[in-house]
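Module 6 notes. Inverse folding takes a fixed backbone as the condition and produces residue identities as the prediction. Think of it as a translation problem where the source language is geometry and the target language is the twenty amino acids. Below is one complete input and output pair. Work through it position by position during the lab.
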């Protein structure tokens, strides 16, 4: 079991992202990636039963229908975006600058780093700009952490993050095949970030923003939760001064969510409407974000 905890995160990421790269390189239709993502979700759920970090987070919280709705809408929007990528790229008034002579895996690493920079900065801004926080708060409303609810986001915030994150892709003329695998990698990483597997990543925690690092970010605390904004990498938090590499073993049931908002809606439609109910931003908003709407 100890070996499982050590190997789980890198094996999960490399297996599924590697399989996606193989399928795309072989010319497989995009719907095969949908099947692969479903297999990844199922694997995550099983692994959380084999080696749970917090057993209470594995119990039925009545949130599965909501989480499924969020995942269908948000992952579906990513599929649509990737399919429309050639159209958006055609609007760029210069030829592709993407380094297509590089090996595919190097192109993929470049794509992930560029995407990660934009999404992580948008995430950071969403904890400091009241209008953005209204929509991002949906993601922080979760009362437990497990891989599948890493896909939970308000569609407006999803659109904002994707637009900012993929802008370098469009400007550089990324090939659609690289974009497909890069987008798929986001879904895999989000599950690892929010996973309830008791993973042990050792020194990788200083580079890779998986669950032991990201749990700090979901603390229902104005100050303690204002850390670790990176999606894939921790380097952005080092630049921003928001990196927290301390142990997260003490973060358990009852400690995640939005402080001051025990009444936050838990159903899908309620969460879609909530950001508009609090419009315009109320006076007294504190920058960190996790404090609610005080």
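Target side of the pair, the amino acids:
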């Amino acid at each position: 079991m100890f070996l499982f905890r050590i190997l789980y995160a890198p094996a999960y990421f490399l297996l599924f992202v590697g399989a996606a790269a193989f399928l795309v390189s072989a010319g497989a239709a995009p719907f095969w990636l949908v099947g692969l993502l479903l297999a990844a979700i199922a694997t995550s759920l099983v692994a959380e039963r084999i080696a749970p970090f917090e057993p209470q987070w594995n119990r039925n919280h009545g949130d599965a229908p909501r989480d499924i709705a969020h995942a269908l809408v948000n992952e579906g929007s990513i599929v649509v975006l990737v399919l429309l990528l050639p159209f958006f790229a055609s609007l760029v008034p210069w030829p592709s600058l993407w380094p297509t002579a590089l090996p595919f895996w190097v192109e993929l690493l470049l794509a992930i780093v560029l995407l990660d920079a934009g999404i992580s900065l948008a995430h950071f801004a969403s904890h400091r700009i009241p209008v953005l926080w209204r929509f991002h708060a949906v993601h922080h409303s979760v009362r437990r952490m497990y891989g599948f609810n890493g896909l939970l986001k308000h569609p407006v915030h999803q659109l904002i993050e994707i637009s900012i994150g993929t802008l370098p892709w469009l400007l550089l003329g990324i090939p659609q095949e690289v974009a497909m695998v890069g987008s798929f990698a986001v879904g895999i990483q989000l599950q690892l970030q929010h996973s309830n597997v008791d993973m042990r990543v050792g020194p990788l925690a200083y580079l890779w923003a998986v669950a032991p690092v990201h749990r700090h970010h979901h603390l229902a605390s104005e100050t303690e939760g204002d850390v670790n904004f990176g999606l894939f990498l921790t380097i952005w938090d080092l630049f921003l001064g928001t990196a927290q590499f301390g142990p997260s073993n003490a973060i358990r049931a009852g400690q995640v969510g939005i402080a001051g908002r025990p009444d936050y809606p838990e159903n899908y439609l309620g969460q879609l409407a909530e950001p508009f109910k609090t419009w315009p931003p109320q006076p007294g908003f504190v920058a960190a974000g996790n404090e609610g709407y005080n």
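Reference fact for the lab report: DSSP finds ten helices and no strands in the chain.
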